[in-house]
Amino acid sequence: MRVLILGGTTEAVELGELVSQLDQVEVFVSLAGRTKNPKISNLNTRIGGFGGIGGLRNYLQQMQIEAVIDATHPFAAQISTHVAIAAQQCHIPHLILVRPAWEKQPGDNWIEVESIEQAAEILGNVGQRVFLTIGRQEISTFAGLEKIWFLMRMIDPPTGGEIPRGEIILDRGPFTWERDRDLLLTHDIDHIVSKNSGGDATYGKIIAARELNIPVIMVKRPPVPESVQVATVGSAVNWLIDLISQR
Ligand code: NAP
After folding, report:
1. What are the boundaries of each domain within the chain?
2. Considering the entire predicted model, what is its pTM?
């Protein structure tokens, strides 16, 4: 069975490695190409967009893909929609592997918002020194907030657009909560902006914020397309094993 995994997450790397060990499976991995040195496995990997739904449909057909697992980031809404539509049009079984969102815990001070734009709007009224941890792609949304100083953490430097006033830290998780607490204290941070990405690798800042009673402007996730959904790598492997056994 020829399986396509849409990646860009730690789970996708782990899944690729496990699935490639199954008998009767040939794995192909697809990455968008956003990070310069992505965590990559030894599997067949293609990098770059497909050129929309039509391009993806062509790829699925040309490569004779028989199952698709969307293991992209919970905020990568466009590719997830494209995969769901293209898989349906090509009658290919499709699974979404999406890690659970973080749940608010006692002591958390979250201001939940629907979008990055809404986060910027709210921040304009309350923040002065802000830890902006949303990656690099959307930071220019905050560039108009000239009175705010931003500490911005991302894997690779920004490639275009206006950069908000402040300092950029280039770093890749996982981050411990103790280290994130020190970062918040050293830079005298009064607000954090985060996507509700879920998972352990970047949860340290949320724990540190709770400890220090710092408000977090938490961007809610976009909706997930309708399809079979699992929350763990193990469940995704089992889905595939079931699929193979039905052939
Ligand atoms: P997006 O907005 O959903 O996708 C934009 C376009 O990028 C897609 O239409 C597609 O181009 C291309 N693309 C995205 N993921 C792809 C993949 N795995 N393989 C091939 N093409 C892909 O995605 P995004 O938010 O920019 O995220 C890009 C990648 O970074 C994703 O793979 C995601 O897993 C990873 N990532 C995203 C975030 C985040 O916060 N958004 C965080 C960590 C990692 P075409 O239409 O040309 O096919």
Report:
1. 2-100+223-245, 110-219
2. 0.96
Distance (Å) from CA 96 to ligand 1 centroid: 14
Q: State the distance from the centre of ligand 1 to the C-alpha of 191, rounded, in angstroms.
A: 27
Domain spanning 2-100+223-245 has what CATH number? 3.40.50.720
- The per-residue pLDDT for range 183-220, each reduced to its tens digit, is 999 999 999 999 999 999 999 999 999 999 999 999 99
Identical fold for domains 2-100+223-245 and 110-219, yes or no, is: yes
Round to whole Å and give the CA distance between 93 and 65.
10
How far is C-alpha 193 from the geometric centre of its chain's CA atoms?
Answer: 15
Q: Evaluate: CB of 78 within 6 angstroms of ligand 1.
A: yes
**What topology does CATH give the domain 110-219?**
Rossmann fold (3.40.50)
pLDDT digits (tens, 9 = 90+) for 137-174: 999 999 999 999 999 999 999 998 999 999 999 999 99
For residue 168, the cross-strand partners are 152
Residue bearing the CA closest to ligand 1, atom 40: 75
